[in-house]
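Re-run with default settings, no changes from the original entry. Doing this only to confirm the output is reproducible before filing.
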Amino acid sequence: MAPSWAATSKTRFSALLLGIFAGLALVLAAIGIYGVMSYAVSSRIHEIGIRMALGARERDVLKLLMSDAALLTVVGLAVGLAAAYAITRVLASQLYEVTSTDISTFAVISSLLAAVALLACYIPVRRAMAVDPVVALRYE
């Protein structure tokens, strides 16, 4: 008689592989979001310099840029949740003791993705805040 772990080894390997690919996808998404936001912020350096030269506080500029990032994050999450809801119908036969519309799973993953996206946006925004307004005004 085979050990009990042998009966579930294929399933465990599949779950481990799926987890590794999910982690890799999260890292790639964070790198992509960071790159896009870094480009978007660097293209607005002149605007940031003008705002800072006219007396805008760092907090106000940070709030402006992060609100743009938050809007993009919310739109991306909405599209992603709709796609995930549709795809879970296909994967419903492979889920064990989990409904295809498990709210807690959707909430945790959405929160994790939102946190990663906002952190990836925050880093370039903070870097842009350190630019001297005079240097930003001369930037072309």
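The chain has one domain: 12-138. The CA atoms of residues 81 and 126 lie 29 Å apart.
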